[in-house]
Design brief:
- This protein is α/β, with parallel strands linked by helices and 194 residues long.
- The chain has a single domain, classed as Phosphoglycerate mutase-like (Rossmann fold, 3-Layer(aba) Sandwich).
- It is 32% helix and 13% strand.
- The chain is built from 6 helices and 6 strands, in the order E-H-H-E-H-E-H-H-E-H-E-E.
- The radius of gyration is 16 Å and the shape is globular.
């Protein structure tokens, strides 16, 4: 019997891109290539300071500009090569991109098919996990710069000792458990702390 893929048990850093106008307006962003706003650039600069002095072997990013710009700002402090992995792009919300979350959201989160070109949840989760696992094959420690949805796959496959959605522009250090059924450990790296 085949086992479902699992998150590689390797410690890494994760950074959700800085804020965009669509984040601020609480619109479904998905694969729409929306750039950082001024707040998002400031968040990326704070993340850069939080990561200054932290050992990073490779920065791996989504191809969407909001993640790439965040990664470039952070790289000023970590001096690591940048690798882009297409599977780290955000979920496609199809015709709902640019719209507020609607009635379809609950059905989609429950795994039901949603019309309008929305990427099926399980397909997205499999792609996201594939992207994170590919990132973790790079020289480490790895910093993944991607999206809130990509982080859902981390949370699904590695129970974390943290609640809720990852905030824009706040780096998180993730450590696998030392054994048993303990959760992964998540540590927020606020600006100026390591």
């Amino acid at each position: 019997m085949d086992r479902a893929p699992a998150l590689r048990p390797i410690g890494f850093h994760y950074l959700r891109h800085g804020e965009t106008e669509w984040n601020r307006l609480r619109l479904c962003q998905g694969e729409a290539d929306i750039p950082l706003n001024d707040t998002g650039r400031a968040q990326a600069a704070l993340a850069r300071e939080a990561l200054r002095g932290v050992e990073i072997g490779t920065v791996v990013a989504s191809p969407l500009s909001r993640a790439l710009e965040t990664a470039e700002i952070v790289r000023e402090a970590v001096s690591a090569p940048l690798v882009v992995i297409d599977d780290l792009r955000e979920v496609s919300f199809g015709e709902f991109e640019g719209e507020p979350v609607g009635e379809w959201w609950g059905a989609w989160m429950a795994g039901a098919p949603v019309p309008g070109g929305v990427e099926p949840l399980e397909d997205f989760m499999a792609r996201a996990l594939r992207g994170v696992n590919e990132a973790l094959t790079r020289p480490g420690p790895v910093l993944v710069v991607a999206h809130g949805g990509i982080f859902w796959s981390v949370q699904r496959h590695a129970p974390l000792d943290m609640d809720g959605t990852i905030a824009n522009g706040v780096p998180v250090r993730l450590e696998p458990p030392n054994g048993g059924s303990a959760p992964w450990h998540a540590t927020l790296l606020p600006a100026g702390k390591q």
